[in-house]
Write a structure and sequence with these properties.
48% of the residues lie in helices and 17% in strands. Strands 10, 11, 14, 15, 16, 17, 18, 19 and 20 form a nine-stranded mixed beta sheet that branches. Strands 8-26-25-24-9-21-23-22 form an eight-stranded mixed beta sheet, with helices on both faces. Strands 1, 2, 3, 4, 5, 6 and 7 form a seven-stranded antiparallel beta sheet that branches.
Length: 885
């Protein structure tokens, strides 16, 4: 039998312990055998390994290969600028890797676990004496003492319990404090047993003596932490897309390079010269600036999200959140405020709201609320705060609103709360005599009441009114309120303790709830408009979950699945159940929450999970994007999350989703922009090989575009603000690719060809004006050749300046956007122009990039091509809007 199913004596015997605790030598032996009572840290990669990964992913490997080829070519043909190309590519790899690592390391440091969930010291019996020992030294068989406010240091079986109530929210997700006693239990699961306290939970009230039976990683707390460790983090959709994009670009680049290397051999080009040009073609097709631009765009999005109270711990999670199709959200502390408030009163046959308190001040109900509690006061940040059961805090705050003076009361006795009695009674000595105050469940308090306080008078409590009380309770329960009955009586000194609760006078009923956050209903509505399904997954009672769901507009007639029912479901049954339009999971455990997430992912959903407890950590890690609460969240939950809400506000998720959706669109915008310039970089090489003309663009000049002038405008496109309608559209399909055919066709076969035409036209314009004729060989350092390549480079930049406006949207006209709406865009264009002027007109620029000054006429020749490209794309967009919806 399990320990919670044993009697106290049998529990002692099963662990070879006794009332006086363990001998010290036996405790030391068990510590050696079972290890310290400490939850191992969630397994993390070493910093060195994390750092190395930033330089060894697939796209980085492509760049390493390109750099190596450049150095090989420089070794065989010095003076071609290939060494500069190799060093520049290595610089890109290093800068991007260091920046990516730093971003994630900084986010990691911001949420380094405090690891204070378990107490540091605990009172334990050793050799018959009560000692204060480190919690890490607890072993199975130890006998410990606990009081209200204490954190439970290990899984324990209660031996003695006086008014014990415990908050299990961090383990089970259930928000209401639960009564516990020392009686043997018939439950199968220890965590549902009334005689068990779980590590990591908190004693809300009472005093207890308990027998430790599981410590460290053997506790329920430790099992959940282990479940988190063995749950591997899945690649985000963006990471998958970047890998797919990397493979596509690598395959395309190498294929084109090999084809033209073979063409070169067929045309009789020398081997090494041919290899250099093949490398040039490969480099021209690899957008070296893409990876740093993606990283910077994600980093900028994280900064915007921090301003909206979402801390991003893992860069790709920014875009993943934007593609989310389902949010599995915890209730307590996420949708609700994690505190109890009084919502309704039932006095003298009528319902009242707390706002009506002025007309109810004479009711004795407020005296019961004032004195019937076990709260303690403590100072926090210079203010007095109440510690204990949130329900008692809410009642006391209500009483203080109604009673201005507090007569001197001295507590004499207490009849503690337990799960059988379901009530608490306290006896006080007052100036007017002894008073007993009682509160608890109506079904246990009402049978003890003979009279009732009605309209300022005490009247006999008859059967019809008793029925009205049960009807009132049912009405409030349907609204998701927890209902308490409050009663009192005058007590004659010397009354036997077992008769103190007889002949009570009922005051009335109080309905209270953990209220939803004010912003949540609007956030739920925005999720619905955005095509995002929200599923509540909670450890709370299904009635409470249903009422909260109705109140926040999440559900009306939901399918409710409780943990026991979920446990009996097959995988297919669960996936079919998830098709329900409205669904709530209640009374679920940590492994079940993770199972729900995995089932949703198998259905092709992109799943975001919110949570704050230890019980949420495995699901947070298994999800596509895990979202932890920053204020109320446990350290294990924060470690497992991709995003942390700094204000614990569900509404902040919607703002973060909006930013995430914008990121995906923005990446496509600057991909179009960057890939467009690949074509005018590639065409000159093709023309050189096929038509035997001077090479219009050198490799170093390609580098000037990819890693110089293009970078800031591309980054500005990555910083575009979300469109007004971004949350009015459904999430993108999981099958939708970042790099899709419309983007490729537009970049390569439309915009890219227009830019290539402009670049080649400018090149031949300068050659023609300089008297060049077809077949003429130009020296690489001749002024005419340098001017022609400079004109080709400058024309590409002119076209890219226009292209940055064109790429702001694939369908909408550039004239629908505010020209000054993105200041970074204007700054990027200004810097792009400054860079090309420095490259063309400064001696250092001429030396590094093989350029020379060109006349104003060349610029004027190139500008009409840019205007024509804008006009043609506007025509394309107009036709697209007209013939497609």
């Amino acid at each position: 039998m399990k320990i919670h199913q044993l009697t106290v004596e049998q529990a002692y015997a099963s662990l070879h312990s006794s009332l006086i605790g363990l001998p010290e030598h036996e405790a030391r032996r068990r510590l050696q055998e079972y290890g310290p009572n400490r939850v191992e840290e969630v397994r993390e990669e070493s910093l060195l390994l994390s750092f190395a990964k930033e330089f060894t992913h697939f796209f980085a490997l492509i760049l390493w290969l390109a750099a190596m080829l450049a150095f090989v070519a420089e070794w065989n043909e010095p003076g071609q600028g290939m060494a500069m190309l190799g060093y520049a590519i290595i610089g890109v790899i290093l800068i991007n890797g260091v920046f990516s690592f730093w971003q994630e390391y900084r986010a990691h440091k911001a949420v380094v676990a405090l690891r204070n969930l378990l107490p540091h010291q605990v009172k334990a019996m050793r050799d018959g004496a009560l000692r204060q020992i480190p919690a890490a030294e607890l072993v199975p068989g130890d006998v410990i003492l606990l009081a209200d406010g204490d954190a439970v240091p290990a899984d324990c079986r209660l031996l003695e319990a006086f008014g014990v109530r415990v908050n299990n929210a961090t383990i089970t997700g259930e928000s209401l404090p639960l009564a516990r006693n020392s009686e043997r239990s018939s439950q199968d699961e220890a965590q549902n047993s009334r005689n068990v306290l779980l590590a990591g939970t908190t004693m809300v009230s009472g005093e207890a003596k308990a027998l430790v039976y599981a410590t460290g990683m053997h506790s329920e707390f430790g099992k959940i932490a282990h479940l988190t460790q063995v749950t591997g983090a899945a690649l985000s959709p963006l990471q998958v897309e970047i890998m797919r994009l990397s493979r596509f670009i690598a395959t395309l680049s190498v294929l084109i390079g090999v084809v033209f290397f073979l063409i070169g051999l067929w045309l009789g080009l020398p081997f090494w010269q041919n290899l250099i040009f093949a490398i040039g073609i490969i480099v021209a097709n690899v957008p070296e600036g893409l990876l740093p631009t993606v990283t910077l765009a994600l980093a900028m999005a994280t900064q915007r999200m921090v301003k909206r109270n979402a801390l991003v711990c893992h860069l790709p999670a920014v875009e993943t959140l934007g593609s989310t199709t389902v949010i599995c959200t915890d209730k307590t502390g996420t949708l609700t405020q994690n505190r109890m408030t009084i919502e309704k009163l039932f006095l003298s046959g009528k319902f009242y709201l707390p706002a009506d308190i002025a007309q109810l001040r004479d009711s004795p109900l407020f005296a019961v609320a004032m004195y019937c509690h076990n709260l303690k006061q403590s100072e926090h940040e210079g203010k007095q705060v109440l510690l204990g059961d949130p329900m008692e805090v809410a009642l006391l705050e209500l009483a203080r609103m109604a009673i201005s003076a507090h007569p001197d009361h001295k507590r004499i006795d207490e009849i503690p709360f337990d799960t059988d009695r379901k009530r608490l009674s306290l006896l006080y000595k007052t100036p007017g005599g002894n008073m007993l105050y009682c509160k608890g469940a109506l079904e246990t308090v009402l049978p003890l009441c003979r009279d009732i306080h009605l309209n300022g008078r005490i009247q006999t409590l008859d059967d019809p009114y008793r029925q009205r009380l049960f009807q009132a309770q049912e009405s409030m329960a349907e609204e998701g309120l927890r209902v308490l009955a409050l009663a009192y009586r005058r007590s004659v000194p010397g009354t036997a303790r077992e008769r103190l609760e007889e002949e009570l006078i009922l005051c009335g009923l109080v309905g209270m709830e953990d209220p939803p956050r004010a912003e949540v209903p609007a956030a739920i509505a925005r999720c619905r408009a955005a095509g995002i399904k929200v599923i509540m997954v909670t450890g709370d009672h299904p009635h409470t979950a249903r009422a909260i769901g109705r109140e926040i507009g999440l559900t009306q007639t939901p399918l409710i699945i409780v943990g026991d029912e979920l446990r009996r479901m097959s995988q297919i049954q669960l996936q079919l159940a998830l098709d329900a339009e409205e669904i709530i999971f209640a009374r679920v455990g940590a492994d079940q929450k993770m199972r729900i997430v995995q089932a949703l992912k198998k259905k092709g959903e992109i799943v975001a999970v919110t949570g704050d407890g230890v019980n949420d950590a495995p699901a947070l890690k298994a999800a596509d994007v895990g979202i932890s609460m920053g204020i109320s969240g446990t350290d294990v939950a924060k470690q497992s999350a991709d995003i942390i809400l700094l204000d614990d506000n569900f509404a902040s998720i919607v703002a973060a989703i909006e930013e995430g959706r914008a990121v995906f669109e923005n990446i496509r915008k600057f991909m179009t922009y960057i890939l467009t310039s690949n074509v005018p970089e590639l065409i000159p090489y093709l023309a050189f090989v096929l038509f035997k003309i001077p090479l219009p663009l050198t490799i170093v000049q390609i580098l000037a575009v990819d890693l110089g002038t293009d970078m800031l405008p591309a980054l500005a496109l990555g910083a575009e603000a979300p469109r007004d309608d971004v949350m009015q559209r459904p999430p993108r399909a999981r099958s939708e690719r970042l790099l899709h055919w419309p983007l490729l066709l537009r970049a390569y076969l439309f915009l890219g060809l227009l830019e290539a035409a402009a670049a080649m036209a400018a090149f031949f314009y300068v050659l023609h004006n300089g008297g060049w004729y077809y077949g003429q060989i130009l020296a690489p350092d001749s002024t005419l050749y340098l001017q022609a390549t400079t004109a080709c480079l400058s024309a590409i930049i002119v076209m890219q300046v226009m292209n940055v406006f064109i790429c702001r949207h694939p369908r909408e006209s550039v004239f629908r956007f505010a020209w000054f709406g993105n200041r970074l865009l204007l700054l990027g264009i200004a810097l792009e122009i400054i860079l090309i002027l420095l490259i063309v007109y400064m001696p250092l620029g001429n030396s590094l990039f093989g350029t020379t000054p060109i006349g104003v006429d060349v610029w004027l020749y190139a500008i009409p091509f840019g205007v024509a490209m804008l006009a043609l794309d506007e025509l394309r967009k107009a036709l697209l809007r007209r013939f497609t919806k």
